[in-house]
């Protein structure tokens, strides 16, 4: 069994989380820019690291959350996400929770630098190493390391930008700062004062909006208390509304001569936009230069549009890499390289510092887009980043032909998912792709033959009902490569099967449904009975039974019984929405208030019935139905994802890059390899403890402790 690091990400404040045959129109699929991976050595024991971020109310921390998730997923680490309230007491409770989970390192970005001392001390008492992340925890010796950007250098970069843009003397200067509870606010201001004070002294600038700063303007170095007095007059509390209100108040009290061409020290991007909006609305302000930091998407667009002058890019990818690498080194007992130290009021904390970059309109393309920090599609007025072309040595481009089942392209389900994988290959490698739609089972064999006759290198057969036709073609055409989606087990050198253990994510759906039902009855049905769809239904049933075992309930599942799988509820069609609605209404009439239809997009018929009746939920399948079927978002409790596009793209990539086709093997999608998962609709109010139980079950299934299947299904379809 391979060893792993369990990363637990705790975020303070709950927030809501974003075709015609043979002539396809391809939408480009953007690939994420390649990042330099952190390469921790293989751990010698199972490790645990907890991560606590301060809030979801600021885009910056959403960025960090996403970067942590992406980086850890890329490295193959497990990620568990917890959510809690935004206050120091909850922060401490989260730390205590992580301690009980056996973590050895906690990466903590404090909500309040001083208040976080209690959390750090609780960790120290438990023998847990504390890494202060981005913001320094103060007033305690219980801080082992600090991973940060050079905050003083950030302030200096902001101030230097203002200095470089100023001409002559007597330029009005407006000062704004972060929150007085955040140690970084002091460091940013310290850096800015280092650069601005000499230019205030020589008359280049004069301060408009802080009497205390004017009083202290002749001092080259300020004490922390003196900085605190100034910050007390110019604080934005890192809040958009506070920043705008303060800016408007400053402008209201300012004389006309204090406006004109002005210079503004804004502490970060969110406040910079708010302040820019206020100054831009004042007719007495001719022009303004305003600083920022964090390179938030909205502020990058402001820079492109000329509404914000600059930002300081603190590449979160580097900070996340440094934090992960440091944590792994601590747990593995390796030496820690630090590049500086910071005084937290009690000790000098050894620190790992990441560099910062000044970004304005002149270099935004290079620094933000071309570097891959943000994708060009996020903005207007920029060019796409040049893509690094992967060396193709496979002898392609290869010609791939997809034969759909009767649902066809546009099913918002697995036909579309497979086509997406081919579109990705076309965009990335130049693969030549096409599809032929089947209207009925009678079309399967002739459509497969049409692909072969068109001299396709790869023929992709979609759907288990195409299995016999596909098998015959595989045997008759040994020189043609075939891929079977939901078709597998041939063991032929010219065939790769793709299977998904959908009982795993469906088990989680069943457990969640059992915890959410108000009637005590669930329903499930399909188009035709077969092993692929039975995996969904079986997992759903077993998840509900697991909930009964754990909670002593008696939730029933209508439409499926593992002891009678061949008679599972079905409508005898993959495309008859009327039949889908009829069976859904029958199950609702019999008491079901949550239904799992396993019939592609036809299953939305259940959502339509529930929408009309005003109650109930469904689960989507294959793709995230809150995206593919947003008109039913209020009825969609979650979706069991079946990431077929990943497998199809991987097959084409191996061909195009190296000419490799791993015939005779089956590609299995599981929870462990992210081939399937349960995507919960976060807009629906689901008890946190129920979600935590579902997450715990996901870990057990991914580790192999649970299969998610009944004994009958497992014996018939999964046992060797």
Helix and strand topology:
Layout: E1 5-12, E2 47-53, H1 59-74, E3 78-84, H2 88-100, E4 105-108, H3 117-125, E5 129-133, E6 145-149, H4 151-165, E7 171-175, H5 183-201, E8 205-207, H6 211-215, H7 224-234, H8 240-253, E9 260-265, H9 269-281, E10 285-290, H10 297-304, E11 310-313, H11 316-332, E12 340-343, E13 348-354, E14 357-360, H12 364-370, E15 399-403, H13 414-429, E16 432-436, H14 444-453, E17 458-462, H15 467-476, E18 481-485, E19 495-500, H16 502-516, E20 521-526, H17 531-551, E21 556-558, H18 577-589, E22 594-598, H19 604-613, E23 617-622, H20 625-628, E24 636-642, H21 644-658, E25 666-669, E26 676-680, H22 688-703, H23 711-718
Parallel strand pairs: 1-2, 1-3, 2-4, 4-5, 5-6, 6-13, 7-8, 7-9, 9-10, 15-16, 15-17, 17-18, 18-19, 19-25, 20-21, 20-22, 22-23, 23-24
Antiparallel strand pairs: 11-14, 12-13, 24-26
Helix pairs in contact: 1-11, 2-3, 4-5, 5-7, 8-9, 13-21, 16-17, 16-22, 18-19
How does this model look, in words?
- β20, α17 (531-551) and β21 (556-558) form a beta-alpha-beta unit.
- α2 (88-100) packs parallel to α3, α4 packs parallel to α5 and α13 (414-429) packs parallel to α21 (644-658).
- The protein is α/β, with parallel strands linked by helices and 720 residues long.
- The longest helix has 21 residues, at 531-551.
- Helices cover 40% and strands 19% of the residues.
- It is built from 23 helices and 26 strands.
- The two termini are 19 Å apart.
- It is elongated, with a radius of gyration of 29 Å.
- The protein folds into four domains: 5-143 and 316-353, Response regulator (Rossmann fold), CATH 3.40.50.2300; 151-313 and 361-368, Rossmann fold; 399-500, Rossmann fold (3-Layer(aba) Sandwich), CATH 3.40.50.2300; 503-643 and 670-718, Rossmann fold (3-Layer(aba) Sandwich).
- The strands form five sheets. The chain has an eight-stranded mixed sheet, with helices on both faces. The chain has a six-stranded parallel sheet with strand order 16-15-17-18-19-25, with helices on both faces. The protein has a six-stranded mixed sheet with strand order 21-20-22-23-24-26, with helices on both faces.
